[in-house]
Amino acid sequence: MTPKERVKALLNKQPVDTMPIFSGMGTVTVQAIEKLNYRFAKVHTDAAMMANAAIETAEIFDFDGIVVPFDMCTIPEALGRGVSLYEDAEGLLYPTVPTKWASMEEVDLPDSFDGIFSQGRMPVVDEALKLCLNHDGGKLGIGGWVLGPFTMAGQVMELDVLLKGAAKDKERVGAFLGRMTDLVIAVAKHYEELGVDFINIREMGTGTDLLSPRMWKNLIKPNMEKVFAAVDIPIINHICGSTDLIIEMMNDCGADGVSVDQKNNVVQSREKLGPDALILGNFDPYGTLVQMEASEVEGVIKKCIDDGVDAVWPGCDIWPDVKKENVEAYVAAVRKHGGKPSPAVGRL
Amino acid sequence: MADEQRRQELLKELHEGVVEYEDDRVKQAAQDVLDEGLNAYDAIMNGLAAGMEEVGELYDQQEYFVPELLMCADSLYIGLGILKPHIRPEDIGASAKGQVVIGTVQGDVHDIGKNIIKMMFEVGGFTVYDLGRDVPLEKFVEEQLKTDSEIVALSAMMTTTMMGMQKVIEMIKEKNPKVQIMLGGAPVTSDVADLFGADGYAESAGNAVQEAVKMISNLRKLQNQ
Q1: What sections of chain B are H helices per DSSP?
Q2: Cis, peptide link before residue A282, omega less than 30° from 0
């Protein structure tokens, strides 16, 4: 199988030759950026640099799939919230949103989201996705990703206002989240039309570290169901942080699979969801690829597989300044232990 | 005796007002404390802070989540705003803990945990220098030197911004090894705090409250002894 075929088959729960190595979160590394002689701050604004940084990472480490962009600000920027790129800062810094709406009264969304794809860096992302899709005859699995409605809302509005409003100002916050849902659907459909192989919806600000299961059920789930119903290609429901209390609801939203981080007890999640659910996860990317000794990595990856994931995904973006030998150990461990069928995906 | 009974009533009002995030109830009780000539510092520590201690427990028991924490913190802040100007120097003298520089590191615009910790430091009688969020690393070093603060509290919510904290710690410890460094934020673990050379850590807004509450509880115990 080609890497793309492997990724697509797995996400459709069809048999694969071996477990693909990819993620729905950023997997760009300094090894690729340095080899290309780029600066990290520059890869977010240039389509060729963005695509090359992702592709080169996959080439160096033998990944099956990649995603772009790398930062979470492209859509808030297109909505006029600006972007801080930190081009003069030392070291690696991801872009941030500098001017969020400070109250519900300040929210100023367009009637239609059709126009956002020509704003800010949205055209750069489109071009980067096309470059990735066309690379080497389209051999890599290409993912698009969008923040979930609540997390997107927290990128354009001050999070404390949103969180308190979710409890105290339910009607207006509910309406605002409805518009965010329309926005997420518009972007996901746009990436689908560009030809990506899968979409990852990252509703990462809604784990039970932040919201109660009851609030998740009432405020998050209905919107996520709309997003998953609107997209026809494989689509994943990713939440990092605490998810044990909401894993069944996550799986019941209509996504093709769920992705969780290291806080999830995958053994229990597998028991709750059964063998047919596609579960992706769940190693700590910073702890495993930056902090650990390379010799310890295989054990972490093997445990993910033994616990019952169908593909080993990091719990979040990979911190770009990884140890090369640790990523190599991660890839080797998936190749070594991912040959046998996983609960939801058989082997050829 | 009547005074003590009234004191207990008002402390309960403040405590429950914070736990139930009833802003008006806290406002009224704080005003009653002042109008009836009761001790403002006692009301802060044994009413407001005690209420927040219960909030920390409710968060720990997964009965409260971050929206509730924020609303409770708002109620506490309302009470603090009324009572704090009336603290007598002799009350706070014994338990004032000095000065804190606090901020969210460059590249991170999440400041919920930072704001809660800031408030709890204020409750504890610290002088707080809040640098805000997305703060350039050298600014922490400059502010610590300028204010001669004993504690620098750094927050990062994302793994991708956490690395900046290590540099700040190195820079501060190089200039003044005695400064205590507290780290906070979702990606921060005890291993990370150790690796970075920090003196303490809190992993989330709720955990930050609990850590701060422990500090305040110790202060209350000392005061009540």
Answers
A1: 2-19, 23-35, 40-43, 49-60, 66-83, 89-93, 112-123, 137-147, 159-175, 190-196, 205-224
A2: yes
**Residue-range domain boundaries for chain B:** 2-91, 99-210
CATH code given to domain A21-337: 3.20.20.210
The span from the CA of A205 to the CA of A152, in Å, is 9
Cis omega (within 30 of 0) on the bond before A69? yes
Q: Give the gap in angstroms from C-alpha B133 to the nearest C-alpha of chain A.
A: 10
C-alpha distances in Å from residue A273, one per residue of A248, A268, A338, B91: 7, 9, 21, 57
Asked casually if ipTM beats, i.e. exceeds, 0.95, the reply is no
Partner-chain contact B109 A167, CB within 8 Å: no
Flag if B191 and A287 touch (Cβ within 8 Å).
yes
- Could you give the CA distance from residue B26 to residue B17 in angstroms, rounded to a whole number? 5
Instruction: Report the amino acid identity of residue B175.
Output: K
Give Cα separations from B105 to A10, A75, B114 (angstroms).
Answer: 39, 23, 11
Q: pTM to 2 decimals?
A: 0.91
A208 touches chain B (CB under 8 A): yes
How many Å from the N-terminal Cα to the C-terminal Cα in chain A? 10
Domain B2-91 has CATH 1.10.560.10: no
Task: Write down the domain spans for chain A.
Answer: 21-337
Render pLDDT for A212-266 as a digit per residue (tens, 0 to 9): 999 999 999 999 999 999 999 999 999 998 999 999 999 999 999 999 999 999 9
Is the pLDDT at B96 greater than 90, yes or no?
A: no
Count the neighbouring beta carbons within 10 Å of the beta carbon of residue A214. 9
CB contact under 8 A, A316 and B204: no
| Fold that domain B99-210 belongs to in CATH | Rossmann fold (3.40.50)
